[in-house]
Amino acid sequence: MANTDYIIDEIAVIGAGYVGLVSGACFASFGFQVSMVEVNAAKIESLQKGQVPIYEPGLEPLLQDALHLKTIAFFHSSKDLFAQRSPEVVFIAVGTPENPDGSCNLDYVFQAVRDVVGAMKKDVVLVLKSTVPVGTAQRVKALIRELNPSFRVGVVNNPEFLKEGSAVADFMRPERVVLGGSDMWAVDRVKALYHSLLHNGSPLFVTDHETAELGKLSANLMLASRISLINQVSRLAQAYGADVRQVESILRSDSRIGSKYLYAGLGYGGSCFPKDVKDFIHLCKEKGVDASMAQAVDDFNDSQKLFFIDDIRKSFPNAKSTTIALLGVAFKPETDDIRESPALVLTEELRKLGYNVRAYDPKAIQNYQQWMTSKNIQGVECFPSAKTLLEGADVAVLVTEWQEFQRLALGGLVRLFKGKKLYDGKNVFTPSQVRGMGFEYMGVGRS
Ligand code: UDX
Ligand code: UDX
């Protein structure tokens, strides 16, 4: 029998977050019976009504279809799940947040393993979908041995490569499927789930646990380093009066360099790059491996997020009488996610310096407000539109390149903004056009 010929009907996903919910809803659309386990009761309540509590394009219709066809169901715990269903493959997609020392916190992953092993009623394959440090699968296997289950438990790494904002498309058309494991019984079952995607030509890499884990972490380190490197170039471009946008184009035309992840800006954010680079550094240190390359990527990114601060202080020395408008607070467009967004450190720094700060974002403003409450940050006003935000602001800083902001330069800016200077954190405006409208302009690495 070919490996992909296993008939698997039922699967489960633990953690209905950005990654888990996308994976669950996409698998449901392939016709699998998907059970989602989620600890957050409010999230389940909303999902059962067909409402996705996060903003991810294309996800809500998939969820609604799955609810309609009854191919997705939600459970509060693994115990509840196994009392009613018997999935053969269980994906673990719970959060793996960063510890204060930069290492990755695996508490939720291990808890999920304990819960499944304690509740399962037949053989199960556990799939590590969340990004985990190298060595995690072996630790999970050791935990399973300790728990001594009555049934067979396979462990497979299947790292996610989903970009927020295009996660559904990334799931449906993966550039590769990576499976890590030593037990072919388990690997073949996970492979069977990806049958249709593999059939459509997505390449499959079957390897050992450690290589799969390192492959995922290195992909994010590699992409993060490109961003730190182009940001490094942008600083020299600024100093010499060169234009980093044109340098980017020159680089892009070199097939050895490639065309993607070459945009200079205010540094990378999100739930993956910053955390995974720090985890990589931590893993190097644990093994006595020189981590200076990865460390430089991380350090440079931290300072890049505050790239405009020196100029703001010089150009607007009277902080108390200067109102700064943040156009966008999400870490990138098409998401409501603010994790590690440059907007957060900018807000903290500007408030510390005494500036009046205000912000607008089409999707992420609620998360930003919650973050401010959790940090006890006072005196930042949030606005319901770009129009109301810009009226009365002295300075505008574009942090997130939402389409609606990009359109502002086509005349809208003049009508809305009566301030003096526009800082373009994503180099989306044409400097001469903005200056032609009578504003001062500063981008990242543009003369
Ligand atoms: C996760 C991982 O943290 C990250 O390493 C990986 O690369 C991407 O997947 P994400 O899906 O963005 O990130 O996290 P989040 O949106 O926070 O979702 C995690 C979900 O798991 C939440 O809904 C949370 O409530 C749930 N959860 C967490 C559980 O159901 N059980 C737990 O024990 C812990
Ligand atoms: C990333 C990875 O791309 C994905 O494969 C992984 O599984 C999860 O982490 P995500 O964090 O959702 O995805 O977004 P991505 O589009 O990769 O952007 C990450 C950050 O890099 C954003 O802050 C973005 O603004 C920044 N970026 C990206 C740049 O500054 N310049 C670029 O050229 C590209």
How would you explain this protein's 3D organization?
The chain is α/β, with parallel strands linked by helices. The chain is 45% helix and 13% strand. It has 20 helices and 14 strands. The strands form 3 sheets. A 6-stranded parallel sheet has the order 3-2-1-4-5-6, sandwiched between helices. Strands 11-10-9-12-13-14 form a 6-stranded parallel sheet. The protein has a two-stranded parallel sheet with strand order 7-8. α16 links the parallel β10 (356-360) and β11 (380-382).
The proportion of residues in beta strands is 5-15%
Distance N to C terminus: 63 Å
Number of H- or I-type helical stretches = 20
Structural class: alpha/beta
Helix share bin: 40-55%
Provide mean pLDDT, rounded: 95
Low-confidence stretches: none
Shape: globular
Radius of gyration from CA coordinates: 24 Å
Strand order of the largest sheet: 3-2-1-4-5-6
Largest sheet: 6 strands, parallel
Counted beta strands:
14
Bound molecules: uridine-5'-diphosphate-xylopyranose
